[in-house]
Amino acid sequence: MENNESKLVAMQKERGPLLEVKNLAIDFTTDDKRAVHAVRDASFSVYPGQWVAIVGESGSGKSTSAMSVLGLLPGTGHVVGGSIKLNGQELVGLKQKDFDKLRGSAMGLVPQDPMSNLNPVWRIGTQVKEALKANNMDVAHEKRSALATALAGDEVKLNDSDDETFIGSTELPALLEAAKAAIAEAGLTGETAERSMAYFTEEWVPGSETRWRVADDLIKAGVNADKAWAIAKSHVTGSTMDDRIAGLLSEAGLPDAATRARQFPHEFSGGMRQRALIAIGLACRPDLLIADEPTSALDVTVQKKILDHLHMLTDSLGTAVLFITHDLGLAAERAQHIVVMYKGQVVESGPSLEVLQHPQHPYTKRLVAAAPSLASHRIISAKERGQDANALLEHRVVGEDKLEHSDAIIEVSHLTREFKLPRKKEMFKAVDDVSFSVKRGSTLAIVGESGSGKSTVANMVLKLLDPTDGTVTYEGQNISEFKGKRLLDFRRHVQPVFQNPYGSLDPMYSIFRSIEEPLRIHGIGDKKSRVARVSELLDMVELPKSVMQRYPNELSGGQRQRIAIARAMALDPDVIVCDEAVSALDVLVQDQVLRLLNDLQAEKNLSYLFITHDLAVVRQIADEVVVMQHGKLVEHATTDEVFDHPKMQYTRDLLDAIPGGKLQLGLD
Amino acid sequence: MTDMTTLPGQERYVAPLDETPLQDVDNVDESAPASSLWTDAWRTLRRNPLFIVSGLLIMFIVIVALFPTLFTKQDPNYCVLENSLGKPSPGHPFGFDFQGCDVYTRVVYGTRTSLSVGLAATILVVLIGTLIGALAGFFGGWLDSLLSRVTDIFLALPILLGAIVVLQMFKTNGSIWKIVLVMALFGWTSTARIARGAVLETKNLEFNTASTALGSSPSRNLFRHILPNSLAPIIVIGTTSLATYIVLEATLSFLGVGLPTTTVSWGGDISEAQTNLMTNPMVLFYPSAALAITVLSFIMMGDAMKDALDPKSRTA
After folding, report:
1. Cα separation of the two ends of chain A
2. B163 Cβ contact list (under 8 Å, min separation 6)
3. From CA B48, how far away is CA B302, in angstroms rounded?
4. Helix or strand or coil: residue A231?
5. Residue A166 has what DSSP assignment?
6. Where would I find the ABC transporter domain in this sequence (chain A) (predicted)?
C-alpha cells in the first residue's frame, strides 16, 4: 500500500499537473454594467488521480472557479484574466464548441442538487445514454485513463485491446456455467467452490467487468491460466448499450441497476439520484471530475456511503476529483490537498491535515474553530466564560447538576402521529410512541435523518399539528385542551424558530414590523414602548438598530435567522423550538447563531427543543439527545453519553458519518 | 514525509493578510440603499422605457377624461345637420360626422366614458375575483371545490355572448353601471383563478406557520400576510384587463347593446361611422385611433408591471 502510494506520487510528479489554474480572475456584470469581482488571482493545481478540495462559504467564489474550468459560468460571468490549463491545453478563451469536446470525455461534473439536475420526463437510463452518445463512447470496451493503466501496468498484462471488452448480459449465464465447470475441473469442491461462484455472480456485472478481470478472477480462484483466458475470450465478447448503462449505474452503487435504469427520477430517492448523476459524470471516463457540493443536500449517512463509493471508484479509474464543499471537516477527510477561498481569493492552501492542524491565515483559523464537526464539547455561554478559566472543565458537572435538579417544562408521552397516504389504505406512522421531557433551562436535541419524524414532533409540541395519540404537556397541562385565551398564552410562552431563513419572515414586512408582530398580536405596550422593545431585541441579537427599516431580502440568511430569534424572544418565552434553525447557514454564521442561542439560554433560563439532522451541532448546544429513526425513538441519553458510549448501532452509524469527526486536531 | 508527497505547485501557501482583510462574520452592510419589494419594483419601472411611454400616455388620457373642457370648448351633442360629413376646418380639426357633430369634441368626451367604464369594471372584477379566489385558496376543501366549479362555469361562458344576452334582457334603462355590472359578472373568473393560485402558493410559506405559532389567527394571517403577498399578480392582470374592458365596452356599444346612444362613446361613434365608411373613412378613423392608443397604453403598462412585480416571468 505504502509502496503503491509513493509510486503514485512519483508518477504524478513525472506527469505534472492535470489541471493548472493560475491567477484566475472572474467578473460578473451587474444590470447597471458594473463589474463584480467574483474571483481574483486564484491559483491551484490538481494532479492526476488526486482529490483536491476547494473550501469556502457561499459567495467565496469556489463554485464559480470550478465552473469556469468547465466553461459553464452562469449568466454574465466571464474570465477576465489568468489561465486554466487541462493536460497542458489552455481553456481560457476556448469556444463553446471546443469545450463540448472536452466536457464529458476529459472533464465530468457531479452537480450539487440531485433534485433538479435530472430531467423528470426521461428514464434514468436514457439520461446515462445521452452522455455516452454525446461523446461517441464505445460501449463494448472500457476506456482506461493513462494513470490507471500505468499504475496497474505491473500487475496486469493485456494482450490486446479486446481484453478490455465488457461482459454482455446475454452471455453471462453461459459464462457462469463455464466458470462452474472450470472450477470443478480444477478440483475445487464444496465450500471453496461455492464461495468462488458466489464471488463471480456478485462481481461479474455486465457492462462493468471486463475480460481480463474475468480471467484474473478465474486464475485467482484456482483455474489454470490458459483455461481461464480461453473461457474469458469465448464468453466475454462485448456489451450492448443497455448493458453498459446498467454497468455504469451499478458501478455508482445502485443495486439492481438494469431495472433502475428503466425508472424515472421521481422514483429515486435523493441519494439514488446523486448516484445516477455520478454514473453520468463518470460515464465517459473523464480524467477530471468536478464535484460541486455533491452531497450537501443528503443525509450524513447517505453522504458517507456515496463519498466512500466515489472515492473507491475514482481511485480505481485514476480519475482526479476537484471537490467543492463548504465543510472543512469533509474536505480534510476526503482530499489530499485543500484550497481555502474567501471573498474570491485563495487565502490558504496546502496538504489537508497540515492546513487543518496548523491553520495560519486568520480566516482558516476562524473556519477551523467554528467547524461543528471538529468541535469536541458544548459551547460555553458568555456568562460562564466570564466566570473562570476552569469553566470548560466544570461545565460538564454544572450541566449534569442542572439536568438532575430541574423539573420538566415540556413533557411528551407516547406521542403518535399518523398520516393518510394518497391511494393507500393503511395509515403511515410518522411518529410512533415517542416520549421524552425537556427540563427547564436545558436543551434537548432531537436528531434524525429526513423522514425520521423529528419535525412532526416539533410541530406537535408547538400545537401546529394535533397528535393521533399520546400527549404533550406544558407546565403539567395537556396542550391539546388549550383553546382561546389559554392557547394564546401558550403561544406566548412557546416560540418557534424555523429552518428556512428565507421563508420564515414575511417579505412585505419591514424588520421592525416583523419583530413587532408578536407584541401587536398579544396587545403588549403602545407604539413607543414597542419601538423601544424592538431595538432592545435587535441589540440582543447583535444587529444594528438601522436594520429596523430594512426588508428581509436585504439581509443574509444568518441575519434573517437572528431576526427570527429576536421575534421569538419578543414575548419573553420559556421554551423555544428550533426546527433545523441553523442547518441552512454557513459554518461561521452557524457558529455565531449557536453561540447567540446559548448566551440567551444562560441569560434567560430558556429551554430549547432543538431539531436537527446534524449530530455535530448537537454536541455544541445540547444537554440531552433523543435519536429518532423511522418515527421511533432509538436512543435517549445525555449528550456526553451518546457521543462517548452510543448504545445503538444506528447512533454509531450517525456518529461515524460526521465528516472529519475522527481527524486529530493540533489545536488545543 | 511531507516534502516527499508534496507535489510542485501544491506547496503550503498563505495569502498575505492585507490582500484579503478579514471582515466581521455576517456584518450588515449599512450603506446599501433600502429596498423593499415595492421600492425595487419602482426602481425597475423607472428604468423601463415601456413604462415611461405608457405612463405618459395614460396620464394624458386621464387628464383628457377629467378635464375635457381644457381641450375643447364645444358641446359634443351640439350637432348641425348642414355640417354633415363636413371636411376639417379651423376649430374642427377632425371634421364632422353624419349628424353634423364635431368629431374632435366627440373623441375628447368619449375618453371619459371609456375610461370610467374600464376602471369601474376592473375595480369590481378585482374585488370580486380576489375575494372568491382568496377564499377558495385559503380555506380549501369543499369551499374550494364549490367556488372553483362556479368559476369554471362562468369561465365557460363567452363574455361577449353573455354580455349581449344579459344586456338584451335589460334594454330599457341604460346607464354606465348596467354595462359595468355585466362586465364584472362575466369577467371576474380569470382574476379569481390567479388570486387562488397566488394565495395557495403564499399560504404554504413558512412565515404563515411562524405567525400562527406567534398566536396570529387565520383571518389575521389571510389579511395581513397572505393577501399582501399575493397582490402582485393581481395588479398585473388588473392593468391588462382594464384594456380589454375598454375594448369590450366599445364592442358592445358598437353592437348597439352597450351604452345608450345619448352617451358619447367611442364604440357608439365607430358604429355610426361605419355606414359612411366608403365615402368618409376619416370619421371612423379618429375614435378608432383613440381607442387603440388607450388600449395599447394599458397593455404596455401591464407588461411593464409584470416585468417589475413578477421578475420570474420576465422574458430575456
Report:
1. 32
2. B179, B182, B183, B186, B248, B252, B257
3. 12
4. helix
5. B
6. 19-368, 410-655
In a mutagenesis test of the A interface, which of B24, B47, B206, B224 is the best target, namely the one with the most A β-carbons within 10 Å?
B206
Q: Give the mutation candidate from B2, B17, B28, B204 for the A interface (greatest A CB count, under 10 A).
A: B28
**CA contacts within 13 A on the Cβ side of A143:** 18
- Chain B residues with CB under 8 Å of a chain A CB are 2, 4-15, 17, 19-20, 22-23, 25-26, 28, 30, 32, 34-37, 40, 205-207, 209-216, 220, 225, 228-229
Query: Where do the structural domains in chain B lie, given as residue ranges?
Result: 61-69+108-316
Task: Please check whether residue A113 lies inside any domain of the structure.
Answer: no
Tell me whether residue A260 is in a domain.
Answer: no
A152 with A235, same domain?
Answer: yes
**Which CATH number goes with the domain that contains A488?**
3.40.50.300
A361/A386 same-domain check: no
Provide the angle, in degrees to the nearest 10, between the axes of the packed helices B281-309 and B103-139: 30
Query: What percent of chain A clears pLDDT 70, i.e. is strictly above it?
Result: 90
Say whether both A348 and A387 belong to one domain. no
**SS3 letters across A427-465:** EEEEEEEEEEEEECCCEEEEECCCCCCHHHHHHHHCCCC
Q: Is the pLDDT reported for residue B54 higher than 50?
A: yes
Compute CA distances A650 → A295, A468, A627, B295, whole Å.
20, 26, 9, 67
Q: What is the DSSP letter of A103?
A: B
**pLDDT per residue over B213-227, tens digit each?**
888 888 888 988 898
CATH 1.10.3720.10 fits B61-69+108-316, yes or no: yes
Instruction: Tell me the pLDDT of chain B averaged across its residues.
Output: 82
Same domain membership, residue A344 and residue A477: no
My answer on whether A488 and A626 are in the same domain is yes
In 3D, which of A452, A412, A498, A457 has the Cα closest to residue A654?
A452
Q: Do residue A85 and residue A185 come from a single domain?
A: no
A181 in any annotated domain:
yes
Predicted pLDDT at A11: 79
pLDDT reading at A169 higher than 50: yes
A296 & A324 share domain = yes
Domain count, chain A: 3
Q: Report CB contact under 8 Å: B34, A343.
A: no
pTM of the model: 0.77
The answer to whether A77 faces chain B, any CB pair under 8 Å, is no
In terms of DSSP bridges, do strands A632-638 and A624-629 run parallel, antiparallel, or are they unpaired?
Answer: antiparallel
Residue A5's contacts (CB-CB under 8 Å, 6 or more residues apart) are: B5
For residue B282, give the amino acid letter.
M
Give backbone dihedrals phi and psi of A435, rounded to 5 degrees, phi first.
-130, 135
Same domain, yes or no: A488 and A396: yes
For residue range A284-343, list pLDDT tens digits in order: 888 899 998 888 777 888 888 888 888 888 888 888 999 998 888 888 888 999 999 988
Would residue A436 count as lying in a domain? Answer: yes
Domain, as residue range, for A623: 382-504+574-657
Cα A352 from Cα A328, distance rounded (Å): 9
pLDDT digits (tens, 9 = 90+) for B258-293: 777 778 888 888 888 887 777 778 888 888 898 899
